[in-house]
Write a structure and sequence with these properties.
Length: 539
């Protein structure tokens, strides 16, 4: 039997015979080197980190380009460390799933430790503080999702637990991850103001800026409350000391797939249990993902960079990263994904690939990308926008071996609307020869999300909503709206569609508010009206 344990790495032949690529380095030596001179801490110990980011480091280790691994730190769902990392000695199995059904399997050993980033776990927290004091540290990276950086709600008010962190300061028990990492940066400042980079690798627009804004806000509040000295803010704002590089990451990484689980069992692989934590994270010791992947990073690393470009990443300047990220997040992939997710839930789909066989949804995806997205895309030079959409539509979304669901993609949509749809609307608003009022598919996507929030599918059945930090604020605003009664809408959508924090702009001011209201009313006219509305405007 193949088991994820350190001692099992010594027998490389057993892994190779099973078609699994073992690491080409001494794992214990890697652990020792990383302990002595840590270079990389990563916050967010989930699936995309292991499937992509940590696997790039493994490739560098195999080629002798680096000598240290990655320390994984989890600041939200601590069961990931307890139930996945620790039982497997921090090892994982990465499975790339190609459209032809083939599986490429890699035994991942680039992660040397899994720590819980919270002061209530004293040993782990003390170790993280010591790591941040080490001059060797080059980067603290993040895949914590867009909401991991949010300090305030849709009205721009700080969350109550964030206000507590502002009063607590770096020495106390902190709630929000951004307060925790600011406290760790303060340890580094006190130890010698050593240089390093805070690098967001999350799938969101201007991710480096979001991270910097959050860290700077926490530091400013601590200074206001006399909890840290003024020099700490100067350290964080000094580009020669602390970098906040922007990045664009792209790799579809769904939860662990039962089909993959079964194939691994047939190989004799033992660590196939799929864990669902109390915080609804679905994770396993194996992680499955599509083959296509992109990582473009701003070259801003004051203490030296990890040579990820030697494993396929692209280092470039901020403007180019911004153009690539804007291309992907606001036009060429993410808007397509989000639009098909909410409509997929409404129309009863449970598979992204299956949705692409639905003529209305396929038309929705293609028209958002090709018809309304491409006219406002700036070609970044390092990736071709048209070719990128072609790959998304013709290869990636249709891959039946990627067990992704609209329900997963629909998570946290409130955090995505302003970027995935709002940026295209702004581009049309600011263009001399375009008018946002002429848009059809983007406002249809927004109307579809509002219709989704009613928690009733197109056949009139109750439908569970995916997790979203704004559900408790948004759903009460839609109370009283009834399927079959368009007049019940009244002015209930106005506060949502005019909210610039949520939508990116006041949609009434750009000529789309009434249009979206109209689409929404059509979609609640009767059972089956969602599909009928899509058919009317897209086909």
């Amino acid at each position: 039997m193949l088991k994820l344990k350190k001692e099992e790495l010594k027998d490389q032949a057993q892994w190779e015979e099973a078609g699994i690529k073992p690491p080409q380095f001494d794992y214990q030596n890697l652990i020792d080197n990383t302990k002595e001179n840590p270079e990389w801490v990563h916050f967010g110990a989930g699936n995309i980190f292991r499937a992509f980011i940590a696997r790039l480091q493994q490739e560098l280790l195999n080629e002798g380009e680096v000598e240290t691994g990655i320390i994984a730190a989890e600041g939200f769902d601590y069961e990931i460390i307890d139930k996945v990392y620790q039982p497997a000695d921090n090892l994982s199995l990465v499975v790339k799933m190609s459209a032809d059904g083939s599986l490429e399997k890699t035994l991942l050993a680039s992660i040397t430790e899994g720590l819980k980033a919270d002061s209530s776990f004293e040993k782990d927290w003390d170790e993280l503080k010591e790591i941040f004091k080490k001059p060797s540290l080059k980067m603290a990276s993040f895949t914590v999702t867009e909401k991991g950086y949010a300090l305030d709600n849709m009205d721009g008010e700080f969350f109550p637990f964030v206000l507590e962190d502002f009063k607590t300061g770096p020495e106390g028990e902190l709630n929000h991850l951004m307060a925790k990492v600011t406290a760790l940066a303060y340890e580094r400042f006190k130890a010698g103001a050593y240089p390093f980079a805070f690098a967001s690798m999350d799938n969101c627009s201007h991710n480096g800026q979001k991270l910097k804004d959050a860290v700077i806000t926490v530091a400013e509040k601590w200074i206001e409350n006399d909890l840290v000295e003024d020099g700490f803010l100067g350290y964080l704002n000094d580009d020669s000391k602390v970098g906040f590089p922007w990045s664009m990451i792209d790799k579809i990484t769904p939860g662990p797939a039962p089909d993959v689980q079964q194939k691994l069992k047939e190989l004799g692989f033992e660590n196939t249990d799929i864990v669902k934590t109390n915080k609804n994270t679905e994770i396993a010791a194996f992680v499955n993902a599509e083959a296509p992947e992109y990582l473009v990073i701003e070259d801003n690393f004051p203490n030296g960079r990890i040579p990820l470009d030697k494993a396929g990443a692209i280092y470039t300047d901020r403007d180019t990263v911004n153009q690539v990220e804007t291309m992907k997040v606001t036009t060429c992939l993410n808007p397509l994904h989000t639009a098909m997710a909410v409509y997929g839930c409404l129309l009863g789909h449970t598979s992204i690939a299956e949705e692409m066989e639905d003529q209305e949804i396929r038309a929705l995806v293609e028209q958002i990308g090709y018809k309304e997205g491409l006219p406002v895309v700036v070609d970044p030079g390092v990736l071709d926008p048209k070719a990128f959409i072609d790959e998304v539509v013709k290869e990636r979304l249709v891959n039946p071996y990627i067990p992704d669901t609209p329900q997963r993609i629909a998570k946290d949509t409130s955090q995505k609307v302003a970027i995935r749809f709002g940026e295209t609307i702004k581009s049309y608003r600011d263009a001399k020869d375009l008018d946002p009022a002429d848009l059809v598919v983007v406002p249809l996507a927004i109307a579809g999300w509002l219709r989704y929030l009613l928690a009733v599918d197109d056949e009139g059945n109750e439908m569970p909503l995916s997790s979203d930090p704004m559900l408790d604020e948004l759903t009460p605003q839609l109370e009283g709206i009834e399927i079959g009664k368009p007049d019940s809408v009244g002015d209930k959508l106005k506060s949502i569609l005019s909210n610039e924090n949520l939508m990116g702009s006041d949609l009434y001011e750009v000529g789309l508010g009434e249009k979206i209201e109209g689409y929404f009313k059509e979609m609640i006219a009767e059972e089956g009206a969602v599909r009928a509305t899509l058919n009317k405007y897209l086909l």
